[in-house]
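quick one, two chains, predict together pls
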Amino acid sequence: ILNVEQSPQSLHVQEGDSTNFTCSFPSSNFYALHWYRWETAKSPEALFVMTLNGDEKKKGRISATLNTKEGYSYLYIKGSQPEDSATYLCAPRGSNSGYALNFGKGTSLLVTP
Amino acid sequence: DARVTQTPRHKVTEMGQEVTMRCQPILGHNTVFWYRQTMMQGLELLAYFRNRAPLDDSGMPKDRFSAEMPDATLATLKIQPSEPRDSAVYFCASGLLQGGNQPQHFGDGTRLSIL
């Protein structure tokens, strides 16, 4: 099991602000990193799957980077909107953990108008 | 859009009763996962199947929990006997995992309350 830490635990920003948060994981035995977006009362929704050091993925105003050598990934949201309010989960997958993902506890983002 | 379907959406029952949760994965997906959401642990993996074979159930309390996949369109998670500490939201997810880097698709969950 890969230990994963996400910070901050929660974040409150104003509409239009850009924001970012961090996912940290052990760099050894790394295979892939997943990011999910989880709105209240809904189910987690996949954002990105990243595998290579230096990977950068983008989906609309949301982007993510990956550093496998130092064991971290950043998620960025540009120009936050109230509909971005959700919990953002990262889940690394280890090279020796089969297909299992180990989810972090997430960063809870609240965007107010 | 294809979706993972979980039933029931809500279940309230008394301690000691058997609980069965069902999951219909997305057609064609070869891997099915069961997760439990708790306040303390977040999303924790209970068990998962690949091509209907159980690959890992180390996250599941074996004395009362059991997971099966009787066919490719149905996965079940049973608790017998249930206890109040089992109260949680249980999620099923499926994926078409070839090289293993495809995302998982989650159902809406079963909210379980054991009185």
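Chain B is about 0% helix and 55% strand.
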